């Protein structure tokens, strides 16, 4: 490159860089202006006795959807959502960092889901078991819980479903996380890998890949993928199946990326708290119900929803814990419980169901 060409390049770049510096200064000013507005919201809530409700999931969902709808590009909507979640997370933390309980240790997909929903300014509280995640919020040691409820290939997470039956907590949000599984190991030679650690669901999600690539390796189920990464980091001749967060946290090389059998492998998480979420304009309502043990009982039970034109997006049964061969049904419907048609349908359902528990109405996940 000639000196003249180099000078022309630097001159052109200097003008663009000056624009970037100016825009960064304006962004800094606007971000702090937004933070001051958020502080004013907190002050107004405190004056009216609502200081404990600093996080409003329906308001956050409305903001994110509006930003996605008006985004002119070139940044994709997913990046806009990520950026503004972090802005809102930092603004909330000026009042009080939210304590978020999730299934640990650090490095799990549950941590990734918690961070995706609440941002990096939240106070992460990893727990040893899903039961402990529920208890942290029930006891007031955490503001919210993030728990896995279903996977697109492996189905429902049974322990979460069972605990929803008895908890006083309410569903106030959901997170949908694309799951990429990686083979992590300090070993570079596949023939030296004799054990593969992972959570049972992750082992199942990579079953066919393991059959092809590591057919002789022992598959060992552990409590979480992060725990699997810890073990693989310490034991020669072992590997772990885990996500990006575990690879980074435990400094394990990714031998092979994206080894999940299903390319659209996705896990849905619930956000649980002590308060309801208001209507956001695009919501779900989750409930648990049971029907008398007789022919046609479930059909009769669901009829009020059908007659009201309410769309059901999930129906799953689980054994009732109080009687042999009795079942409870977990149902997700579209819409908020305060909408007139849904409220009327739920009232009719309550009159006919042997048992009915409304778990909560909450915004549909914003990607």
TrEMBL record:
SUPFAM superfamilies per the UniProt record, alphabetical: ACT-like, Chorismate mutase II, Periplasmic binding protein-like II
GO MF annotation: an example: prephenate dehydratase activity
Catalytic activity: prephenate + H(+) = 3-phenylpyruvate + CO2 + H2O; chorismate = prephenate
Compartments where found: Cytoplasm
Keywords linked to the UniProt accession: Amino-acid biosynthesis, Aromatic amino acid biosynthesis, Cytoplasm, Isomerase, Lyase, Multifunctional enzyme, Phenylalanine biosynthesis
Residue intervals of the ACT domain: 286-363
Positions of transmembrane segments: none
Chief localisation class: cytoplasm
Segments forming domain Chorismate mutase: 7-99
Pathway where this protein functions: Amino-acid biosynthesis; L-phenylalanine biosynthesis; phenylpyruvate from prephenate: step 1/1; Metabolic intermediate biosynthesis; prephenate biosynthesis; prephenate from chorismate: step 1/1
Residues annotated as domain Prephenate dehydratase: 99-274
EC code: 4.2.1.51, 5.4.99.5
Function as written in the Swiss-Prot or TrEMBL entry: Catalyzes the Claisen rearrangement of chorismate to prephenate and the decarboxylation/dehydration of prephenate to phenylpyruvate.
Protein's name according to its UniProt entry: Bifunctional chorismate mutase/prephenate dehydratase
Taxonomic path: Bacteria, Pseudomonadati, Pseudomonadota, Betaproteobacteria, Rhodocyclales
């Amino acid at each position: 490159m000639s000196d003249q060409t180099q000078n022309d390049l630097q001159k052109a770049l200097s003008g663009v860089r000056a624009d970037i510096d100016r825009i960064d200064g304006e962004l800094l000013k606007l971000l702090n202006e937004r933070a001051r507005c958020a502080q004013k919201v907190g002050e107004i809530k405190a004056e009216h006795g609502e200081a404990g409700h600093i996080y409003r999931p329906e308001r956050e969902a409305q903001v994110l959807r509006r930003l996605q709808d008006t985004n002119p590009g070139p940044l994709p909507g997913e990046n806009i959502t990520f950026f503004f979640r972090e802005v809102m997370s930092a603004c909330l933390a000026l009042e009080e960092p939210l304590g978020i309980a999730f299934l640990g240790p650090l490095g799990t997909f549950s941590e990734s889901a918690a961070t995706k929903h609440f941002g990096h300014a939240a106070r992460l509280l990893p727990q040893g078991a899903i039961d402990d995640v529920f208890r942290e919020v029930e006891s007031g040691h955490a503001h919210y819980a993030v728990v896995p409820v279903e996977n697109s290939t492996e189905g429902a997470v049974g322990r979460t479903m069972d605990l929803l039956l008895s908890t006083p907590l309410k569903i106030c949000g959901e997170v949908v996380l694309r799951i990429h599984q990686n083979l992590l190991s300090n070993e570079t030679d596949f023939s030296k890998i004799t054990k593969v650690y992972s959570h049972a669901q992750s082992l199942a999600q990579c079953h066919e890949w393991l059959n092809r690539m590591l057919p002789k390796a022992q598959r060992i189920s552990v409590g979480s993928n992060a725990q699997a990464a810890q073990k693989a980091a310490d034991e020669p001749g072992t590997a772990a199946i885990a996500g990006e967060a575990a690879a980074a946290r435990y400094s394990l090389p990714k031998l092979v990326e994206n080894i999940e059998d299903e390319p659209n492998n996705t896990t849905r998480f619930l956000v649980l708290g002590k308060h309801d979420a208001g209507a956001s304009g695009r919501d779900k309502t989750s409930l648990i119900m049971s029907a008398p043990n007789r022919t046609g009982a479930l059909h009769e039970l669901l009829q009020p929803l059908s007659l009201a034109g309410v769309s059901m997006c999930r129906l799953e049964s689980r054994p009732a814990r109080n009687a042999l061969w009795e079942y409870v049904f977990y149902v997700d419907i579209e819409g908020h419980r305060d909408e007139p048609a849904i409220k009327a349908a739920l009232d009719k359902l309550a009159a006919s169901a042997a048992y009915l528990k409304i778990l909560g109405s909450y915004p549909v996940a914003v990607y």
